UniProtKB/TrEMBL annotation:
Pathway: Cell wall biogenesis; peptidoglycan biosynthesis. Substrate binds at K214. Keywords: Carboxypeptidase, Cell shape, Cell wall biogenesis/degradation, Hydrolase, Peptidoglycan synthesis, Protease, Signal. This is serine-type D-Ala-D-Ala carboxypeptidase. The active site is at S49 (acyl-ester intermediate), K52 (proton acceptor), S114. InterPro entries: Beta-lactam/transpept-like, Peniciliin-bd_prot_C_sf, Peptidase_S11, Peptidase_S11_C, Peptidase_S11_C_sf, Peptidase_S11_N. One of its GO terms (molecular function) is serine-type D-Ala-D-Ala carboxypeptidase activity. Removes C-terminal D-alanyl residues from sugar-peptide cell wall precursors. One of its GO terms (biological process) is peptidoglycan biosynthetic process. Residues 1-17 form the signal peptide. Its EC number is 3.4.16.4. It comes from Aureimonas flava. It catalyses: Preferential cleavage: (Ac)2-L-Lys-D-Ala-|-D-Ala. Also transpeptidation of peptidyl-alanyl moieties that are N-acyl substituents of D-alanine.
Amino acid sequence: MLAALLVAAGLSAPAHAFETTAHAAVLLDFDTDTILFEKNPDDEVPPASLSKLMTLLVIFDELKRGAIRMDETFPVSEHAWRTGGAASGGSTMFLPLNSQVSVADLIKGIAIQSGNDATIVAAEGIAGSVPAFAEMMNRRAQELGLTHSHFVNPHGLPDPAQRVSARDLVTLAAYIIRTYPEHYPLFSEEEFTFNGITQRSRNPLLSLGADGLKTGHTSEAGYGLVASAKDDGGRRIVFAMTGMKTVGERATQARALMTLGLRGFENVVILKSDETAGEVPVSGGVAASVPVRAAGEIRFIEPRGSGSPYQTEIVPVGTIEAPVPEGRRVAQMRITRDGAVVREEPLYAAAEVERAGLLQRMQEQVLGYFR
C-alpha cells in the first residue's frame, strides 16, 4: 500500500512496506499535504470520542466570532449529568448537577479528560440542545469537505447514524492546527484538575513527543487515536488510526506509525521561498532578462535515501515581451527524476522590466538579425 502511494507521487518506496493492525489509518505530511500512508482511508466507522474534535472545532468557531466567551458559564443540566456524568459509566468531567461551568474549563474537560458531560453542557449552552449542536457539527463537516462523516451527538457515544473516516479525521485535525494555533497547545496538556479531581490525558504518545490530539474508545468502535507530532527540524505529521482491539495495541501501533512518519521520510527542498530560480529572456525591455521565483517554497517529502537527485528546467511561457510587471507568471519549473516529469510549478517575475526606448529596441532587432 505504501509503495503504491509513493510511486503515484513520483517517489521511491522504502525497503519494507509498513503494515498496521488498525482497521483504518492515514498518515499526512502536514506542510506538503502529502499522504505518506493509508489503509482503508474512507471506510466509515463509529467515531467514539474522536468526534469531540469536531465538537471542539465548533466551540473554537463560536469563540472566534464572539458568540461566546472563555469566561462565560453554562449550566449543567440533568440530561448532561445523567447521560455524561459519573453515573453513565463513560469518560466524564464529574460536573456537579445544576452547577455553572466556564467555557475555558469545558474545553479542557473535553480535550484532556474527554468528558462526555462537558460536551453536552457545551452543546446545550451554545445551540440550546444536542440535536441543534449536531446540526452545527454537520454543517462544518460539509464546509470542510468531510464526505464520509456524519455527527449525531457531541461526545461520540454509539448511534447507528454516526460515522467518520480516517481521512476525514486527519483533515479535521490539520484544519484545527492551522486555523486555531492559539488553542492547539491545550491538546498537549497531560492532565487537568477540576473540582478537586485530577485526570490524565489518555493519549499514549504525549510522553513520546506528540503534541495532540485525541483518543477514543467504545466497544463498537474499538480503540482509536488522532495525533500529531514534529521532528527535530520542525516537520509536522498528522495521523489517524481506528479499530484497534486493546489500549495496548493502540499505543504500540500509534507509536509505530509516528516513528514511520517522523524518521522514515525527509524533506527535499528544490527551491526556497526567498530564492530566485534563474532568469527568463525578455524581448524589448531595458533588461535582456528577468529573474523568476515561485509563489513559495518548492519541496518534496520522500522516504529517506530514496535515490537519484531531481533535475530542474525553466521553461518560458512563450516569448516574454516588455513591459513585464513584477509578479507576472512568465515560466514553468519542470522537475524531473530519472527522465520522468514528476511536477511542474509556475514561476513569476521577481522584478519589473520596463519597455525599452525606440532606439534600444531597434538596436536589439539589428543585433538579433545578425545572430
